[in-house]
Amino acid sequence: MADSKTTIRSLMSKYKAGEKLVAITAYDALQAKILDPFVDIILVGDSLGMTALGYATTLEVTIEQSLHHTAAVSRGIGQAFLVGDMPFMTFGINDDESIRNAGRYLKESGAQAVKLEGGQKAAPLIRKMVSLGIPVMGHIGLLPQHVNSDGGYHVHGKEPHEASALMDDAKSLEEAGVFSIVIEGVPADLGVKITDSVNVPTIGIGAGAGCSGQIQVLSDILGMDADFKPQHARQYADLADIISGAIDAYATDIRSGEFPSDKESFK
């Protein structure tokens, strides 16, 4: 449990000391307040499209929605390092627009860094962002924003040429100046190789235990969606069942006249 604001410098100190970095997603101030004492990094992922906004994929998330949720999370954070996830088509079209959009996270939402998907092709843009004082977290492997071009969600790097390309992606991002790299959906042994090949922290999600840290989507590890249980997530609670039971009891008490009682009433 940290007692001061986490920075890139303190994250790097933990990484160099061999400490595993703990990251998680959040989408509002209350979630952030609860999570804050226990984690190093909070990411307002574009997964909010599915977890909070009801979209089928991350692609529908707009920058205004992302900034809104990132600002809400920032108001609940005390010590964790806050990263805003740049949505689909908010970067990569042209550098000026991409940099302005990234800058909005730092200026308007309280984020300390942005995350964007892509490897070697994204490296030149990331280098420009970093040169202007915008810290960037990279993201390689399974890229949710490429779900249509990839033909769905699947493990990347199983074939030798794919693994080699991901190794090159990681090195390109490191050279561009990222402070960390999310590795998603790759074989565990490849996660180790990528981690060993770079001198910045790797944050795994479905990339094995050999990464420098791990990140998970909050609703996945809390069991908030009874119909969705991804293989890469360990479920630490069954909140869908707990919440359903609580609301059932609440509704029953209202209908029976048990609630509110004198205890919950004013005199």
Describe it for me?
- With 267 residues, this protein is of the alpha/beta class.
- The chain folds into two domains: 229 residues, Alpha-Beta Barrel (TIM Barrel), CATH 3.20.20.60; 29 residues, no CATH class.
- 40% of the residues lie in helices and 13% in strands.
- The chain has eleven helices and eight strands.
- Strands 1-2-3-4-5-6-7-8 form an eight-stranded parallel barrel, surrounded by six helices.
- Helix 6 links the parallel strand 4 and strand 5.
- The longest helix is centred in the C-terminal third of the chain and has 18 residues.
Supply database-style keywords.
alpha/beta; 8-stranded parallel β-barrel; TIM Barrel; 40% helix; globular; 267 residues; 2 domains
How would you concisely characterize the structure shown here?
The chain is an alpha/beta fold and 267 residues long. The chain contains eleven helices and eight strands. It folds into two domains: 229 residues, Phosphoenolpyruvate-binding domains (TIM Barrel), CATH 3.20.20.60; 29 residues, no CATH class.
Main sheet overview:
8 strands, parallel, barrel
CATH superfamily of the largest domain: Phosphoenolpyruvate-binding domains
- Number of distinct helices: 11
* Number of spatially distinct domains: 2
CATH fold-level assignment of the largest domain: TIM Barrel
Task: Please write the CATH class name of the largest domain.
Answer: Alpha Beta
Rounded to an integer, what's the Rg over CA atoms? 20 Å
Fraction in helix: 40-55%
Contiguous uncertain segments of 5+ residues: none
